[in-house]
Amino acid sequence: MDVLEVRNIMETYQSDNGETTALRNISFSVQKGQFVSIVGPSGCGKSTLLSIIAGLMKPTSGEVFVNGEKISGTSPHIGYMLQRDNLLDWRTIYKNVLFGLEVRKMLTPETRERAVCLLKNYGLYEFRDKYPAQLSGGMRQRAALIRTLAINPDILLLDEAFSALDYQTRLTVTEDVCRILKKEKITTVMVTHDIPESISMGDRILVLSARPAVVQEILDIDFDDP
Ligand code: ADP
Ligand code: ADP
């Protein structure tokens, strides 16, 4: 089944020096459990596309469907992770992980238990009373991932989530993240300008090309076994 369907998305920004069409005729579907990388140069519209899928931005035209339902606005079924880990410095790792549930008014004994399980399964339980500054960049990124997974999203969106890490850490973290996402069977859409990263992480690669004033093309190479 398609967990996500993006249909004919177009986004035009108005500014003082006229219009910028960031996205034109973008359509694709993502099946359950797939990891789709969307790769393209800086400024080609990757963040715009992800913000639209996250429901943080309304497209000029086009539609987004999650589990067959058209979305308007943010959805509790979608988790969103950005370049910065956005952990709150004054809260412990445990409290940070619960925070994602709190802001969504989803904190119940069951969801708390899920959060604790994730911390245990992915080696952060012993660090639960530490503050973000006491953890390495890789551990913080893992904590941020667990905070997002605690809400049990149907779709995880990653926006250049690893760009801020140094090269060595990035290699370890991306491997770590792939392992966790495969295990949890989370459907993921990641945007990145990093071609090797898109290939090493994705089951499927979409290429967003930026040629000014030309329709953007999506090249769909599906590496998945049938
Ligand atoms: P990417 O994430 O691939 O770097 P963005 O989605 O950030 O690309 O931006 C796509 C295009 O839209 C760029 O040309 C950018 O300058 C333009 N753009 C992005 N946000 C705005 C905005 N708020 N107002 C006007 N133009 C914007
Ligand atoms: P508060 O009383 O401030 O709401 P909590 O009871 O939520 O605090 O958590 C205080 C500390 O107790 C946490 O940092 C964590 O180490 C531990 N803790 C609380 N609940 C659990 C739990 N279900 N499993 C494991 N540790 C927990």
State the gist of this model:
31% of the residues lie in helices and 29% in strands.
Any chance you could write out the topology, listing elements then pairs?
Layout: E1 2-15, E2 18-31, E3 35-39, H1 46-54, E4 61-66, E5 69-70, E6 78-81, H2 93-103, H3 109-121, H4 137-149, E7 155-159, H5 167-184, E8 187-192, H6 195-201, E9 204-208, E10 218-222
Parallel strand pairs: 3-8, 3-9, 6-7, 7-8
Antiparallel strand pairs: 1-2, 1-4, 4-5, 9-10
Helix pairs in contact: 2-3, 2-4, 4-5
The chain binds adenosine-5'-diphosphate (2 copies).
Residues 13, 15, 20, 22, 40, 42-48 line the site of one adenosine-5'-diphosphate.
GO molecular function: ATP binding
Keywords: ATP-binding, Nucleotide-binding, Transport
Organism: Caproiciproducens galactitolivorans
Alpha plus pi helix count: 6
Helix content: 25-40%
Q: N-to-C SSE series?
A: EEEHEEEHHHEHEHEE
Q: Low-confidence spans: pLDDT under 50, at least 5 residues?
A: none
What is the percentage of strand-forming residues? 25-35%
Instruction: Report the sheet with the most strands, covering strand number, pairing sense and barrel closure.
Output: 6 strands, mixed
Let me know the number of strands. Answer: 10
The Rg value, from CA coordinates, equals 18 Å
Overall average pLDDT:
90
Strand arrangement within the widest β-sheet reads 6-7-8-3-9-10
Approximate shape? globular
Q: Catalogue the ligands.
A: adenosine-5'-diphosphate
Keywords: ATP-binding, Nucleotide-binding, Transport
GO molecular function, one term: ATP binding
Domain ABC transporter: 4-226
Protein name: ABC transporter ATP-binding protein
